[in-house]
């Protein structure tokens, strides 16, 4: 079989309608955006470093990742925009930390990797 489709129409309409009614396209859009945010190796490493360090500035993250501060700043900004990280200003420093959603997504990925 080379085609991934059924060869006949075998729709279980009550089941299909029940499932379709529980799916939220807006929620799927948000979840996809968050998953996509971790789809870059630098962002994935930054998220893992934030989980380990709890709260880090871009200078620390850049040193940990071996990347430029400008590049790391760009990537943590994207994590923040996706709702996976948050930032706060402490004087002249901006500190980043994972949100609960970011930590949960990382945990899910690591659990799936070990299965």
What is the topology?
Elements: H1 13-22, H2 25-37, H3 41-53, E1 56-57, H4 58-65, H5 69-81, E2 85-90, E3 93-98, H6 100-113
Antiparallel strand pairs: 1-3, 2-3
Question: What do you see in this structure?
Answer:
The chain has a single domain (13-113), classed as Winged helix-like DNA-binding domain superfamily/Winged helix DNA-binding domain (Arc Repressor Mutant, subunit A). It is of the alpha+beta class. The protein has a 3-stranded antiparallel beta sheet with strand order 1-3-2. It has helices at 13-22, 25-37, 41-53, 58-65, 69-81, 100-113; strands at residues 56-57, 85-90, 93-98. It is elongated, with a radius of gyration of 19 Å. A hairpin with a 2-residue loop joins strand 2 and strand 3. It is built from 6 helices and 3 strands; from the N terminus they run H-H-H-E-H-H-E-E-H.
Keywords:
Arc Repressor Mutant, subunit A, alpha+beta, 115 residues, elongated
Short description:
With 115 residues, the chain is α+β, with helices and mostly antiparallel strands. The protein has helices spanning 13-22, 25-37, 41-53, 58-65, 69-81, 100-113, and strands spanning 56-57, 85-90, 93-98.
In the CATH hierarchy, what is the architecture at level 2? Orthogonal Bundle
Strand content: 5-15%
Number of strands: 3
- Strand order in the largest sheet: 1-3-2
Shape descriptor reads elongated
CA distance, first residue to last residue = 29 Å
Structural class: alpha+beta
> What number of structural domains do the residues give?
1
CATH fold type: Arc Repressor Mutant, subunit A
CATH structural class: Mainly Alpha
CATH superfamily: Winged helix-like DNA-binding domain superfamily/Winged helix DNA-binding domain
Mean pLDDT: 87
Helical residue percent band: 55-70%
- Uncertain spans: none
The biggest sheet amounts to: 3 strands, antiparallel
The H-and-E topology, N to C, reads as HHHEHHEEH
Count of helical segments?
6
Global Rg: 19 Å
């Amino acid at each position: 079989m080379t085609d991934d489709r059924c060869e006949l129409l075998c729709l279980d309409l009550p089941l299909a309608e029940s499932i379709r009614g529980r799916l939220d396209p807006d929620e799927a859009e948000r979840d996809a955006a968050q998953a996509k945010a971790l789809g870059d190796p630098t962002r994935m490493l930054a998220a893992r470093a934030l989980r380990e360090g709890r709260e880090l500035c871009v200078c620390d993250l850049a040193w940990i990742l071996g990347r430029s501060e400008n590049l790391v700043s760009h990537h943590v900004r994207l994590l923040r925009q996706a709702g996976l990280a948050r930032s706060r200003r402490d004087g002249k420093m901006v500190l980043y930390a994972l949100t609960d959603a970011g930590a949960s997504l990382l945990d899910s990925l690591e659990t799936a990797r070990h299965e």
